[in-house]
Amino acid sequence: MKIIQILIVTSAVALGFIAPDLIKSLSQDHNPIDIDKYCMLSTKTCIQDGVAVTLEHDNAKPLVESKIEVHWDNAASDTLLLSLQGLEMDMGIAKYQLTKQSDGSYIGNIMLPVCTQDKMTWIGTLSDGNSEVYPAIRMER
């Protein structure tokens, strides 16, 4: 009888950990993300809605800092907020602040977390507080 009680309690605890993710997975809208709306960043300047963005490297490496430079004429703020999330895997949201330089450009450094996959795409938004553009960064080990 004690074995059955232990199994019931263990099953209930395990279900408590699994249920939220299962419910979230079932309730999410399964519309695929249109990667074409994102500007893939690299050493070649990517321009979207008049905002020019350049990444120090063609592909980011996990835990390796990479400089990002943005030219955004008439931006509404002295800082820009870059928010990125993994496309292939949920790794949370990484946020970075870019600061305005004396020449009018915005500079910041990003360092993406380690992922279990060898390659991953990070997609997100770059905002001046009023409007936003949609950058993407390819990360490879």
TrEMBL record:
Source organism, top-level taxon: Bacteria
Entry protein name: Uncharacterized protein
UniProt organism field: Vibrio algarum
